[in-house]
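Section 3.1: Structural characterization of target chains.
Under the original work plan, the team committed to producing a structural model for every single-chain target entering the pipeline before any wet-lab resources were allocated. The record below documents one such target. The sequence was received from the expression subgroup and is listed exactly as submitted; it comprises 203 residues.
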Amino acid sequence: MTSSSTQAAALYEEIAASGYFPALIADAVAEGVDEEEIRAYCLHLEPTFTHDEIHRHLTVLVLTPSRLVLVHTDEAPAGQEPVGDGRPQAILSTESISLSGITAVGLTTVVADPAAWRPGHRGIAEVWLNVGWGTMRRIELEPAGCDDPQCNADHGFTGTVSTDDLTVRASVAADGAAQVERLSSFARALQRATGAAGRTRGR
């Protein structure tokens, strides 16, 4: 069995093990990836609590040689009227982003006991993956000032513009150490892939 087929088999096993509409999600992933090789993947299940109900959101992230494929699946929101025969509904969306179109891949880590850190030490408590490709832009503004403490003039505002199209968080407390490592590994693979795509584009 090749590395790609091994990755694909492991991905579909994890989808089945999640127990969250596995046939629907596996089919959506297969259609999204198409015939491309699966180089890395990560599943992220995020429950949302509303009143006395739990609604789940599952994101499947798949890295292929040319794209980042995202499959999002949500249970129908609380209070939404069922249609048809009244059975539960799911909302599913698939995104396909060219690696050459990704502008930023950020990996933020929260480290427990940083003073005791050693190479290979597994002290990461939480990780955040942020991916930007220009679909959404976030503007953060704050009042501008100057170095004069006596100045009371209006200096307007200063701010930063950043892209933040996807944010995925995993913590040891909520998701377990294995999921934290899985998301970290996927983020590093995506950083390498987008870096290579950028070098190719710049030639």
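Residues 1-98 form one domain.
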